[in-house]
Amino acid sequence: MSSNDHPKTIAREESFGYDRKTIDYIRNAAAHGLYEIRGMGAKRRLPNFDDLVFLGASLSRYPLEGYREKCSTKTVLGTRFAKKPIELEIPITIAGMSFGSLSANVKEALGRAATEVGTSTTTGDGGMTPEERQSSKTLVYQCLPSRYGFNPDDVRRADAIEMVIGQGAKPGGGGMLLGQKVSPRVAGMRTLPAGIDQRSACRHPDWTGPDDLAIKILEMRELTDWEKPIYVKVGATRTFNDVKLAVHSGADVVVVDGMQGGTAATQTCFIEHVGIPTLAAVRQAVDALEDLDMKGKVQLIVSGGIRSGPDVAKALAMGADAVSIGQGVLIALGCNHDSYFQDGAHHDATAGYAAIGTAHGYCHHCHTGKCPVGITTQDALLEQRLSPEVGARHLKNYLKTLNMELTTIARACGKQNVHHLEREDLVALTLEAAAMARVPLAGTSWIPGVNGL
Amino acid sequence: MERMSFDLAQVPLRELNSFLHQDAPAKGVHQVVVTNPDGAHNIAVGLDCPVEVEIVGHAGYYAGGMNKLASITVVGSAGTGVAENMMSGRVHVKGFASNGAGASMHGGLLVIDGDAGLRCGISLKGGDIVVGGSVGSFSAFMAQAGRMVICGDAGDALGDSLYEAVLYVKGKIKSLGADAQIEPMSAADYATVKELLDAAGMQHDAKDFKRVASARSLYHWNAEADQEY
């Protein structure tokens, strides 16, 4: 047999640069002439809290008995200026998500679960609904650039005010709510014609820059007679500087939302390519507070891809006072599940996912308003697929689990209070995480960029 | 106690605002005079009762911000964001107003005797603004509802990305923003302009005003539309 007997072929090789995903993207762009808009947060692989591990107690540290010894999770936010700081039972809060992006049932479920476990929930773009105020013991009221439905009566009814500068999914961008979700009730609350594709402003209408923001925050303080804590929320980008400016502006609490943070509708290019990972942001935020000697005076809430008890524990050890969760909360309610529970029975949701061109586990179609499990919808039939009672039960379980995991880890590290977790309890598994979080690579004393090579 | 006077050179702002929030409605105070404001920010913000407040001098940022029911007069000029997010009542600036006057107002009447700066009526959600002089660029940006009467000129990009708010302009418009268009005046428009001028106490002929409203071409995503906006 000569070497010429092997049939000549041209190798079938997928391009690294022009892989199937990129080819699909270019074809979509060519066919439609519009960027892709979707929900949820960054999906690409990013350094995250999984890349850190705790150094549990051993001979050099003394652990607490996992099930017997007290481990406090009490969390106080807003101690700098507010007469009435927020007192929470657990350091895990519900992130701001609007009525509009979510159904009224979901907003009610969030309030009920948060109240039962002793934490706070947050309004979103479009104002405060009576359902969420009634169901939430502690409610944080967002003041957003659009000011949709913003009302001084709701400021007075709120327990804290959150000035939203930006969001991890889209730092520098405004919100979107596509026409199919702008129902008559949503449109009425936002003073917009029903059914339009709503694009929120990305800049506040009545202030520009940190010096103005300081005056704006004083207005909120004057309006509430200095009672309520004022949070400032930033999307993670130049986090070190932004946190310093937020503190300068008079914030009681700074909320830093990393690029894994979710959204109900944003351009994919924005979600995946603007902002920095939560892991990098939390370190910068803590550095900023320490640089100003404000650690413990101004509280830090971290959000963006916090999913589990270990994530919470790591964020706290890095220096956060609390975390905020959006997507994990929605998944606990049934987001991306294969079925929904209605009228006492489980119903298959596969066809609903297929109808919007996706499948359970992959769905990020919040923007369509056709959520097959009844969460991110304003459709009168779909929203019945999640009842406030069932949703609240699942969410309460999820939050309790996270809190149990958090205290388990804290006890293993010898802490009687979860807020005593510290950076020294952490090491990194990857060079990237070691460099971003500035904790040593496991088994070494090496922190890239800080010591050694 | 019908009438009270606060000298901001002597009394902290916090005391004045706290009085206006709590004591004014409780004690039935109908008139409050504020002297020596000296450009202080956040004077008379968040009022929630039908009290009359007269600020004798210049006010800083957010004077009368988020007002409900009260009638607030600035006998001088006002800084950024005067009457921002007002829900009802009336704010009257006898001098000039800075940027973002009446931003995201939901209701009530804002009267500015002089000129207003940039972004007057930005994100307007209801209520009425009457400006005796001219307004700066980007006024009525993304204005959703409500009415504005501008007796002087308007700067660049008037009514950019306008929703359902309607603007009436007597003078020159330097340029219209994306999706804003000049429309014919109807009998109802003339009546509206006259009603608002009367409410503001200004003498102009409604016949001299132009109507600016949304062409509504940005209400839905459209791949065929040019992307210059």
Write up this protein:
The complex is a heterodimer of chains A (453) and B (229). Chain A has a single domain (49-437), classed as TIM Barrel, CATH 3.20.20.70. Helix content of chain A is 32%, strand content 14%. Chain A has helices at 20-32, 104-117, 130-135, 152-157, 184-190, 209-223, 239-248, 268-273, 278-291, 309-318, 327-333, 350-355, 388-412, 431-437; strands spanning 37-38, 52-54, 75-77, 86-88, 92-94, 120-122, 138-143, 160-164, 176-177, 198-199, 230-235, 253-257, 266-267, 299-303, 322-325, 339-342, 345-348, 426-428. In chain A, the strands form 6 sheets. Chain A has an 8-stranded parallel β-sheet with strand order 5-15-14-12-11-8-7-6. Chain A has a two-stranded antiparallel sheet with strand order 1-13. In chain A, strand 11 (230-235), helix 7 and strand 12 (253-257) form a beta-alpha-beta unit. The N and C termini of chain A lie far apart (56 Å). Chain B is built from 2 helices and 11 strands, in the order βαβββββββββαβ. Chain B has an 11-stranded mixed β-sheet with strand order 1-2-3-4-5-6-7-8-9-11-10, covered by helices on one side. In chain B, strand 1 (3-7), helix 1 (13-27) and strand 2 form a beta-alpha-beta unit. Chain B starts with a strand and ends in a 15-residue tail after the last strand. Chains A and B meet through helix 4 and helix 6 of A and helix 1 of B.
Question: Largest sheet of chain A, order of strands side by side?
Answer: 5-15-14-12-11-8-7-6
| Strand composition percent of chain B | 15-25%
CATH class of chain A: Alpha Beta
Query: How many individual helices of chain B?
Result: 2
Give the SSE order of chain B as H and E letters.
EHEEEEEEEEEHE
How many domains make up the 3D coordinates of chain A?
1
Runs of chain B in which pLDDT lies below 50 for 5 or more consecutive residues are none
Report the sheet with the most strands of chain A, covering strand number, pairing sense and barrel closure. Answer: 8 strands, parallel
**Strand order of the biggest β-sheet of chain B:** 1-2-3-4-5-6-7-8-9-11-10
Mean pLDDT of chain A: 95
The largest interface is: A-B, 35 and 44 residues
Helix content of chain B: 10-25%
> Can you tell me the CATH architecture of chain A?
Alpha-Beta Barrel
